[in-house]
Amino acid sequence: MGIQLFMLALARSFRYGLRPLANAMRTMSAEQNPPKQGIKKWFSKEVFKLEPKGTEASLRDIADTLKSVNYRYDFPQNLTDQQKKELKRFDIFRYDPMNSAEPPHFVSYYIDLNKCGPMFLDALIKIKDEIDPTLSFRRSCREGICGSCSMNVDGRHTLACITAIPKKNLEKSFIAPLTFMNVLKDLVVDMTHFYNQYKTIDPYLKRKTPKAEGQKEFFQSVEDRAKIDGLYECVLCLSCSSSCPSYWWHSNEYLGPAVLMQAFRWVIDSRDEHREERLEAIGGDMKLDECFQLGVCSLACPKGLDPRKAIEELKELHHHYSEEKEKKGISVNVSLPQ
Predict the structure, then answer these.
(1) Would the pLDDT of 4 be above 60?
(2) Most buried of 34, 107, 271, 329 (most Cβ within 10 A)?
């Protein structure tokens, strides 16, 4: 039931903005008993109070927004229908903006899983090496460390190198680029804007006190070191940000879950001495406040991290900093949570 409610809320977010989606998630969390009057009626009445009168929630709203990808065809592999039934089918998004004559579409490839590695990246490499060399995608480490092969696999943003192919299921799997990102070619998206946003948080240690003579390192206690666990492991694959509705709508201003989690990582690092300056930099406009704590980012993270929780704590720190600053009219020393 929760998935159905979320999908309906997501559908309405395309048409009416993020407030209905935020209301939906909060209502779902507070709802203890299943609605007796039916999901559709309850959802329209209780969740979408900001919608125009006379509208009704429907999953068709999602289909109405997805009109750019309108056809699919099989790549010519000289296979019979019977052979295709015995092979795994991969529907892969293909699009070359430089070739305006061909709109976005899906191409189906058939692979014998007994002759392919276990991960989706293995399937992509096999397709490129043995079937269609024109297919474009990013990849590097093949160990879930570099974040290069982030893409949409069967409806979920993840890393293709650590996402296993369902061996016992010969039903089709589809692979597409990260949602709401500009496509450079096929599965390759433009990360320039994201990297520019990442630069704005100064993702490196900043000190005011110089090292003492002979000092080589800045030490920290075991307890302080433990505070950045679950933060430093981020590989900047953008799976979380590209799953975030707020980032879809306001990526030009909102920094997104990936950048904000890394901002929090440096704010709470005991070795850094620019905590107040960092909190000041992420305030104002919609850099931080556009997060509605939906938690989709945490569900999407292929590394099992929790950007939602990090942003929640970052917002608390920023709120405390803003209150103290308003009272004193000067920069304040913000204490970290224990």
Answers:
(1) no
(2) 107
